[in-house]
Amino acid sequence: MGNVKFLIQRVLDMNYKAMLDTIGQIHERTGRSRWWIFQDMRRCATQYGAGYVDYNLFELYDLTPELRDTYLTRGRNNEIVVKYNSKTAMDELDDKAKFNARFAGFLHRDWVHVTGENKEEVLDFLRRHDAFMSKPTHGCCGRGIEKLNTADFPSLDALYERLLQQAPDLELEELIVQHPALNAIYPGSINTARIVTLRGKQGKVYFIAALLRIGNGKFVDNFDNGGMLAPVDLDTGTITGVAVDKFKNVYEKHPATGAAIQGCVIPDWDKAKELVTRAAPLIPEVRYVGWDVCFTPDGPCLVEGNQYPAHDLYQHPVQTPDRVGIMPRFRAVEAEEAKLDG
After folding, report:
1. Residues 211-270: tens digit of each pLDDT
2. 207: which strand partners?
3. What's the pTM?
4. Can you give the C-alpha Rg of the chain in angstroms?
5. Which CATH architecture has domain 88-96+178-341?
6. Exposure pattern of 66-100 as b/e (b: 16+ CB <10 Å)?
């Protein structure tokens, strides 16, 4: 039923020109007829909840039905979000000010919400920090985030008036000092680990997937804003594959630093897993979360939580040489949960 609803919505929202362009690209790449590709896309949408973007990204046209069934597609991800996350509670994660208030003990940095009615509190923050991050309380993909310096403004009052223009949809955060091990890969951004967890009915926290997001020329590490990502072993924190960007460019070494990526070990990995395990129960109505964790010389801390974990980041073909997606991990969780219920 979930796939049927997904298909109906996709038909209504479909960018047909983009779909036809994608079919043309796959035709040029594979030599298969456009009609065969279209019919195969339709089958994948019906059977696996995969739209044309998933079909192209995961190269489903080259996979057997058994391998296709291992992929977490957009349609399947929607179903998991609906099953585990209450829509009414999602704003506790989506709103950065609410998130910071709820998870204050996990941030390990100074912050303030610019409400429009707390001028002195904001000015006190500005007096403590010569440089800081300015973030919209709602948003994604790193859009609207700025790194600001108080010295660039004639006075703190002038800076406050500038910030006030975005109130109450703005929060300010102290700059994070990154661990030297991750600074060595790329010092221009805070390179965060995305750790996906699912909390069972009896409170057990399951780890689904992990990756390291790495900046590339910008001060944000977001994949949709110029960054790249690399897969991480959940047990050890070791980067297990090459990095890839949104355009499928592959990086064995970071182009800015020359640092090797595969084989690097993320520091304090066990502490990071313990951190998100403690954070997971704080919003009981949201049980499927993608946590963004940064690493400092003093240990890991939370950056944000995503109530709609992106499904496409963990299954890039170049990073999955066995061509197995992450659906088996969800199925293993469901099987274990069924045993606990029994």
Report:
1. 999 999 887 777 887 899 999 999 999 999 999 999 899 999 999 999 999 999 999 999
2. 197
3. 0.92
4. 21
5. 2-Layer Sandwich (3.30)
6. ebbebbbbbbbbbbbbeebbeeeebebbbbbbbbb
